């Protein structure tokens, strides 16, 4: 199966996150500033800046920034990048429509697992988590893909 083409360019990603998605991006910038002031460094991932803190807890996306645990893999970073892409789509309603429900659902599932209960369904079974994972994978595949002529000498 051929990889789906991406429609959002890097330029539009930044324009949308800094206008339509500004509420979440602004909150993310405040969190990022606090993290920088406490000595944490961000690394680029996709078109976002990613901070790593602690272990075994997952991640949190805040516009152009996300925070993840140190011992998570690439798939979590792709998922959080997918949430940043959702911020471009849903803009000012992202915190209520996606961010808060995602956080509540994550912590509910985690508490259930710690108490020995098994949550029904997979993590991506709810629409906003599945969409974030699919978007993140698709856009990272396009970003990581070699460009025609890249590395060739004239």
Short summary of the structure?
The chain has helices at residues 10-17, 22-37, 74-90, 94-114, 127-144; strands at 43-45, 48-52, 59-62, 65-68. The chain has 154 residues and is α+β, with helices and mostly antiparallel strands.
Main pleated sheet? 4 strands, mixed
Q: Which word captures the global form?
A: globular
Q: Bin the helical content.
A: 40-55%
User: For this entry, what is the oligomeric state of its chains?
Assistant: single chain
| Alpha plus pi helix count | 5
- Tell me the radius of gyration: 16 Å
Order of neighbouring strands in the sheet with most strands: 1-2-4-3
Element-level helix/strand string: HHEEEEHHH
Average pLDDT, all residues: 91
- The rounded distance between the terminal residues' Cα atoms is 33 Å
Strand content: 5-15%
Strand-pairing-aware structural class = alpha+beta
- Which runs of at least 5 residues are low in confidence (pLDDT < 50)? none
Instruction: Compute the number of structural domains.
Output: 1
Extended strand count: 4
Structural notes for this entry:
By secondary structure, this protein is of the alpha+beta class. The chain has one domain. A 4-stranded mixed beta sheet has the order 1-2-4-3. Strand 1 and strand 2 form a beta hairpin. The termini are far apart.
């Amino acid at each position: 199966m051929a990889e789906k083409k991406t429609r959002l360019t890097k330029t539009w990603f930044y324009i949308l996150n800094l206008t339509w998605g500004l509420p979440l991006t602004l909150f993310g910038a405040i969190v990022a500033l606090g993290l920088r002031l406490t000595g944490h460094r961000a690394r680029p991932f996709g078109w976002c800046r990613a901070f790593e803190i602690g272990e075994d807890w997952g991640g949190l996306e805040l516009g152009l920034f996300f925070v993840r645990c140190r011992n998570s893999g690439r798939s979590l970073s792709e998922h959080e990048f997918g949430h940043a892409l959702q911020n471009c789509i849903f803009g000012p309603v992202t915190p209520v429509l996606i961010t808060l429900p995602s956080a509540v659902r994550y912590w509910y599932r985690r508490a259930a697992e710690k108490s020995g209960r098994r949550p029904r369904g997979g993590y991506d079974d709810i629409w906003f988590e599945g969409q974030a994972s699919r978007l993140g994978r698709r856009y990272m595949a396009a970003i990581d893909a070699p460009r025609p002529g890249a590395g060739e000498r004239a």
